[in-house]
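quick one before i forget lol
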Amino acid sequence: IESFKGLEDPSHNFFNADAVDQTLYACSAGDGMYANPERKGWERLNLEDRDKQSGNKWVCTTMTGPDGLQWTITTNSLVCRKEGRYVSLFSNLTEQKAHNQLSVTDATCLASGDLVLVTNKGAMLVHAKDLSIDTLKGVPQHKYASVQVDDQGKVWASYVGGVLYFDPYKQVYTEISKDFSDLSKYFFINRSK
């Protein structure tokens, strides 16, 4: 962890902020993730996973599940903080040769501690217990924009063509049907939060 003295500098752009217990987290554009534990001062965190060397300074969001696992989405990876160590769950996505690289657009924690990811290639479920990842093949493979869990445990996701809710374990879903011929009225790309 290195000390950070530039939070007042207007050249720093931040995507998101999160509070977990007594620590504030700030997710920056191009300068990594910062933490302010117990409001004692800002420190820059090193998200690099030494096994995969996929540290990223473009941090989109961070969230903590009910089991205390901290999940961080960067522009080229998904990082989990487990037992004090950052673990990258994807290799550096920008280094993979593909015409349409995987891009994680949003995520939400379930009551079980598992994480639902929505991407440009469909939805995924990350199991908190062993950090394994399942592609949700029973859910349409849309280009998703956002995901949220409601107070009844339903997982809602938005995509260019509409909104659906699904059960990530049973892999069943219900689409909210509508006439989307005028996309200017029904373009569901904003975050659900």
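fyi The radius of gyration is 17 Å.
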